[in-house]
Amino acid sequence: MTPPLRIAYIRRFADAELIPALQGLDGTQTVVLSADEAIAGGLEGCDGIVTAGAKDLWTPAFAAAVQASGLRFIQNMTAGYDGIDLYELPGIAVYGNGGVLGAPVAEHGLAMLLTLMRRLDYAVLAQQQKTWLRKGLPQVLTLGDRRMTILGFGSIGRAAAKRARAFDMEVAALRRGGGSDPEADHVYSYEEMQSAFAATDVLFLAAPLTDETFRIVNETTLSWLKPGAVVVNVGRGDLICSEALQKALESGHLGGACLDVTAPEPLPDNHPLWSAPNVLISPHIAGGSDRAGAKLAAHVVANLRLLLQGERPSHVIRGH
């Protein structure tokens, strides 16, 4: 009789959906651990783990525990996997989350953008003060007939493109290989970034954090953007040089910034971005959704079933 596939689930989010889904999967045995319990030897005898790919989880101690345990695979739950990418982890395959967070993350970025451009932040403040604010309101802007350039055209970028087009925006995709794509009006390679930025009204950042994309938005590249452009970051904080962003906002070159992620994170209470002009900040909540947990659980279970059947899992990031 084939022994069950032993899975360690590292508590993070969506516990209510993931734990019963994993424990109810035939042919597997699931242990539920905290990160500290995993570090203390809880991964011993496990074949794989279901966990997040964030840097704050993937400490050297956690990575060492993973490497020492003889795991065969990591099923990542989050859109990003920059924490996992810090370590080579030889012999361990890494599987992605199937893009299940693409829609909520894109929606959150568009919601922040609309709030900024329609000046709803002013309206909310006025409501709290019981003030009927019409005079003195900054110019209200529309998305239509403007160009959104999306850096990172994976599940989040594509979901953002679909929604931007619904607002009559022109969409440009910026990705390493360039080429063409039916979901974008224009596609640029990284080598064409200056040309892409020069025509950009909204820069939407949805790329993974890698050596290549670390602070890819910096003083030089920000200067290429059209005056008054808005930057939306739902990817990772270190896609942007915070000091350069601050300078571009204060000079008026940028029309605003919508940040669900920051560097550092969380943002210290004395950080100048809190009070920078035309900035909206949310505390890394774009992936949240009332339906994301169920979709994530369904994807993880489907991938584990493929493993149990001896088939190749979907959304392989690394390995087999």
From TrEMBL:
GO molecular function annotations of the record: glyoxylate reductase (NADPH) activity; hydroxypyruvate reductase [NAD(P)H] activity; NAD binding
GO CC annotations on file: cytosol
Domain D-isomer specific 2-hydroxyacid dehydrogenase catalytic: 36-317
A Pfam family matched in the record: 2-Hacid_dh
CDD domains the UniProt entry points to: 2-Hacid_dh_1
D-isomer specific 2-hydroxyacid dehydrogenase NAD-binding domain sequence ranges: 110-286
Keywords: NAD, Oxidoreductase
SUPFAM superfamilies to which the protein is assigned, alphabetical: Formate/glycerate dehydrogenase catalytic domain-like, NAD(P)-binding Rossmann-fold domains
Superkingdom of origin organism: Bacteria
InterPro entries assigned to the protein according to its UniProt record, in alphabetical order: D-isomer_2-hydroxyacid_DH (IPR050223), D-isomer_2_OHA_DH_cat_dom (IPR006139), D-isomer_DH_NAD-bd (IPR006140), NAD(P)-bd_dom_sf (IPR036291)
Keyword field contains Disulfide bond: no
Similarity comment text for this entry: Belongs to the D-isomer specific 2-hydroxyacid dehydrogenase family.
Protein name: D-2-hydroxyacid dehydrogenase
